[in-house]
TrEMBL record:
Organism ancestry: Bacteria, Pseudomonadati, Pseudomonadota, Betaproteobacteria, Burkholderiales
Gene Ontology molecular function terms on file: guanine deaminase activity
UniProt EC number: 3.5.4.3
Gene3D superfamilies, A to Z: Metal-dependent hydrolases, Urease, subunit C, domain 1
Organism: Pseudaquabacterium rugosum
Domain Amidohydrolase-related: 65-439
Pathway listed: Purine metabolism; guanine degradation; xanthine from guanine: step 1/1
Superkingdom as given in the UniProt entry: Bacteria
Protein name: Guanine deaminase
KW Disulfide bond (keyword) present: no
Gene (name only): guaD
UniProt key word Acyltransferase: no
Cofactor annotation: Zn(2+)
Manner of cofactor binding, per the entry note: Binds 1 zinc ion per subunit.
Broad class of enzyme this protein falls into: hydrolase
Length: 447
């Protein structure tokens, strides 16, 4: 592969910028810099100087280049039910989601759906994701194979559910364990894939199945654990009835040996103080899903309190509870959820959580999340504005910035924030120009 060089305004984070500091020193803007990508798909260098003739050059000066987004919680089959009207979580699952997921037992349908889904992730600016397929092993194979074919860093595993679901969506402990062992052997550590032991949520697994999940995690170091927790008040009450011996919803997972530093738990809106301490002690992360929480009316996640208590927080689109695969739209919803709670968080906090922050909490910071020599070149190229309103807004921000950033005009983070916040708030997949995965261009906007 010819080494590639892309010139744009490079934006990433060297550390956690905190939630409210517009002037954070962790923000790194390198205007009109060249990102040099070696034949192995890794970043070789970042320089203001154009490289020589042996580099294939892509000059996108004036555009923004960032690490690809990491969507830390999303459901592949739920593209089929995104934007379904009128229900809260438990009704939504039985009315729309379970019937749609049942169709993914069909290998032909599962493979087509997986291809559409991973291409859609790339076309929305997400180069990595933590994904739930369905209970069917074939749907996990299809998803992991589709990511592998595109060289993507993807974390996924067959969903475990052996009760409180329609027949077509229930496994049993023995078959599920055999399926998981086969899937782990086939996919975990292959290319950029990692396997996640994936009990859907406590309510759809028997204690025997959760115990089996714990055994899998103990048997295979490096596996992830992916589930939902404390999303909706009716769900929390129901779960407490099902597991009366556990102190809390989160404690169920702890009691079955499911919490560790590679655990990703979606939502966590209704955790208590002891739960948050447990999350911190285990190094587990909450995938905050603001779009889904608003759409299903689940509640408002307290990001400020979580951050103050040292809990790891990343961001998930949670399609189809969430209404867009765009992490820009999801992050913009994240801002609004915190605004409702009286806190204004910065564009830096939001963008960091979906790039370097997610990479760190997934223990992948030596591979993705920043623009740094040695890391894999998973990057997205963005227009600052799409459409006349966003263009006008961007022009206003640029005026106050004293013109476009350049090698001789590098604005500080506080000055830059207005422009980036407006981009994040108004932007979506229409702003996305190209997506590169491991140094290969995998998406090009055509319109
Ligand atoms: N809890 C259990 N399953 C699901 C799901 O598919 N989506 C959401 N948002 N919450 C869940
Ligand atoms: Zn979910």
């Amino acid at each position: 592969m010819t080494p590639q060089a892309i010139c744009a305004d490079l934006l990433d984070f060297t550390a956690d910028p905190g939630l409210a500091d517009r002037d954070s020193a962790a923000v790194r803007l390198r205007p009109a810099h060249w990102l040099l990508i070696g034949a192995d798909g890794r970043i070789v260098d970042i320089t203001p100087h154009a490289p020589g003739d042996d580099w294939h050059k892509h000059d996108h000066r004036g555009r923004l280049l960032m690490p690809g987004f990491i969507d830390s919680h999303v459901h592949c089959p739920q593209v089929d039910v995104i934007a379904s009207w009128g229900t809260e979580l438990l009704d939504w699952l039985t009315t729309y989601t379970f019937p749609a997921e049942a169709a993914h037992a069909d290998p032909v349908l599962a493979r087509a759906a997986a291809a559409l889904f991973v291409d859609a992730l790339l076309a929305h600016g997400s180069t990595s994701a933590v994904v739930m397929p369905t209970v069917h092993a074939v749907s996990a194979d299809a998803l992991l194979d589709a990511a592998q074919a595109r060289g993507m860093r993807l974390i996924a595993g067959k969903v475990l559910m052996d009760r409180h679901a329609p027949d077509a969506l229930r496994d049993d402990v023995e078959q599920a364990e055999r399926d998981c062992e086969r899937l782990i052997a086939r996919h975990h550590g292959q290319g950029r894939l990692s396997y996640a032991v994936t009990p859907r949520f406590a309510a759809t697994s028997t204690p025997a199945q959760l115990a089996m999940a714990g055994r899998l995690l103990a048997r295979h170091p490096g596996l992830y654990m992916h589930t939902h927790v404390a999303e909706n008040r009716d769900e929390v009450a129901w779960t407490a009835q099902l597991f009366p011996q556990s102190r809390s919803y989160l404690s169920i997972y702890e009691d079955f040996g499911l919490l560790g530093e590679r655990s990703v738990l979606a939502h966590g809106i209704w955790l208590d103080d002891a739960d948050r301490r447990l999350m911190v002690a285990r190094g587990a992360q909450i995938a905050h899903c603001p779009s889904s929480n608003l759409f299903l009316g689940s509640g408002l996640f307290g990001w400020g309190q979580a951050q103050a208590e040292g809990m790891a927080v990343t961001v998930g689109s949670d399609v189809g509870g969430g209404t867009s695969l765009s992490m820009l739209r999801t992050l913009a919803d994240g801002y609004k959820v915190q605004a409702l709670a009286g806190q204004r968080i910065t564009a830096w906090a939001l963008l960091h959580a979906a790039t370097a922050g997610a990479a760190r909490h997934l223990r992948l910071d030596a591979e993705i999340g920043r623009l740094e020599p040695g890391l894999v070149a998973d990057v997205c190229l963005w227009d600052w504005a799409s459409g006349p309103v966003a263009a006008r807004r961007d022009a206003m921000a640029l005026q106050r910035l004293g013109g476009a950033p350049s090698a001789t005009h590098v604005p500080d983070a506080a000055a830059l924030h207005e422009r980036v916040f407006a981009w994040l708030t108004l932007g979506d997949e229409r702003n996305l120009v190209q997506t590169w995965v491991a140094g290969r261009c995998r998406y090009i906007r055509t319109a």
